Amino acid sequence: MTDLLSLLPPGMPSPTSLPGIALIGAALLVSYIILQAIYNLTLHPLASHPGPFLHRASFFPYLYRQVTGTLPLDMLAFHARYGPVVRISPDQLSFSDPQAWKDIYGHRSPGQPEFPKPYFFYRAKNLPPSLLSESRENHGTLRRLMAHGFSERSMRAQEGIIGGYVNMLINGLRNASGGFGGEQGEGRNGVSEKEKEGVRVARSTGEKEGKPPVPVNMVSWYNWTTFDVISDLAFGEPFGCLKKAEYDPWVDAIGKGVRFGTVLMAIRTLGLEDVLLPIIENLSNKARRFHRKRTMDRLERRVNLTKERPDFMEGLLQKKEEWGMDMERLAANAGLLIIAGSETTATLLSGATYLLLKHPEAMKKLTEEVRSTFKSEEEITLSSVGSLEYMLACLNEAMRVYPPVPIGMPRVVPKGGAKVAGTFVPEGTVVAVWQWATNHNEQHFVEPFEFHPERWMHDPQFANDRLDAVQPFNVGPRNCLGRNLAIAEMRLILAKIVFNFDMQLANHGKDWLDQRGFIVWDKHPLPVYLTPVERNGV
Ligand code: HEM
After folding, report:
1. Would you say the CB of residue 332 lies under 6 angstroms from ligand 1?
2. Which portions of the sequence form the region Disordered (predicted)?
């Protein structure tokens, strides 16, 4: 050993000293990364698939794009460069062919296994599973139990609850847009501290042009409404956001959590969960205890209700003993419903509002449809808005241009491998269709970046559009359970707003869609001037 040490070049630290150990550690790490890269590029089962060079060699550039929120957008350029199948990280393929929706996520014929959901994306080791993360074996039964709250019958029974919050939204907007000024107005118009600066600029522009004095931040109002609706349907009581015209800490935490979720996924992808998660949990202990106590208190109040209620929990509660549903699992599913059902719907409503206001022709057509279909506020209900065809086209087009979930929902190719959109994929590969990129692919759509609701109205100009490429709710056995409710709720909210107000964007200059995409978008405030429509002199 002493002889070996004497071979070291002069000036090198001794391998038994601290700098020496650090140097050896660094050399081992670099060698590991190089060997991994060589393996990923040559012997890995996906080695022959094309893809961005660095992403094929290592996870790091992919994860960097993921945690900085550019990945869903970058995916479009990757497909433009490499074609319909791209190797986006050492073990992941992205598909842009619409056929891939069915092949990856669709229902299987008997004997064919589903593509399971990967652990790194869906499951936290320390939490009980929800419907979203439940194993394939348990998913079907749990889904049937929960589907009870989403049936046609339940939705009809929920009309009163949902309609009540939408009316609160309309009243709140009426007050916030015109009735208040100065500091009081600031508190009531949905503008948080962080957002105030943008709105101040918007307001002064509006005043110069003789507009109503207070723009309202539609992102906040939509969020408050959808969170109150879903909380009522999941816990039996709202968050009270609409009443107070401010965010509840629970709701605020969800917004931050969604962004943090991508960091968590990166940690799991690198296999560092056991090391880093306890540290993160320790740092956020106080906030987590607060959040957990409020969830459990709410849940307990709902569980203790003796009267039947047409909400999401009723089906689960009726079978809770039979299914061994303890409070932890009930809380996991109530939490899922709130996260899945409110942020997504509010995001799409915000995007649709922006896109309509940027396209006055479409807004004019929609306004005509709504105001000619309904003569009074009371006629606008969850069921009656089903007849608004142009409205549905606008929402569909908004979901194409600005899908609330812009990423690809990952699945794992099962044993033996499988064909996806005509390409054989080896087992264990993570595959997905990335929504934003697929929806903006010029091979699928004429003018993919333009907002044309007419695509969805059989306009011959768009006859060759691949409308089947747009799947905002996903397809197959694990598609969105709340799809019908989401569409009905969005139609109702937008119809009531268009019926009651003329709208105008407060800051026309900025492209509001220029956002970073995590699991959902990191939305900017959307300040809008609202002018109440006068009817019968009112
Ligand atoms: C515009 C609104 C919405 C969009 C774009 C949307 C999108 C999605 C997507 C893409 C999935 C599949 C996730 C995956 O494959 O991992 C999903 C699942 C789910 N969504 Fe939605 N969603 C919306 C609204 C809602 C609403 C209103 C609810 C309920 C209140 C809801 C409840 C669920 C549930 C429970 C699942 C899990 C289903 C399962 O795994 O069986 N969603 N949603």
Report:
1. no
2. 180-211
Determine how β-strand 92-95 pairs with β-strand 430-433.
Answer: parallel
pLDDT exceeds cutoff 80 at 87: yes
* 327 backbone dihedrals φ, ψ, rounded to 5°: -60, -35
- 355 within ligand 1 shell (Cβ under 6 A): no
Contacts of 149 (CB under 8 A, 6+ apart): 233, 310, 311, 312, 313, 314, 315
Any atom of ligand 1 within 6 Å of the Cβ of 408: no
Nearest to 359 by CA among 493, 441, 454: 454
Residue range 316-341: mean pLDDT, rounded: 88
Our answer on whether the CB atom of 410 is closer than 6 Å to any ligand 1 atom is: no
Does the complex come out with an ipTM higher than 0.85? yes
Ligand 1: residue of 143, 480, 485, 521 to mutate (most ligand atoms within 8 A of CB) is 480
Q: Check: CB of residue 521 under 8 Å from CB of residue 262.
A: no
State in Å: Cα 483 to ligand 1 middle.
Answer: 7
CA of 139 to the centre of ligand 1 (A): 14
**Amino acid sitting at position 352:** A
> Which pLDDT does position 315 carry in this prediction?
86
Greatest CA separation for the chain: 101
Residue 264 pLDDT level (bands cut at 50, 70, 90): confident
Q: What is the reported pTM?
A: 0.90
**Model confidence at 187: pLDDT above 60:** no
227 class by beta-carbon count within 10 Å (0-12 exposed, 13-18 middle, 19+ buried): buried
The answer to whether 480 is annotated as binding is yes
pLDDT of residue 181: 35
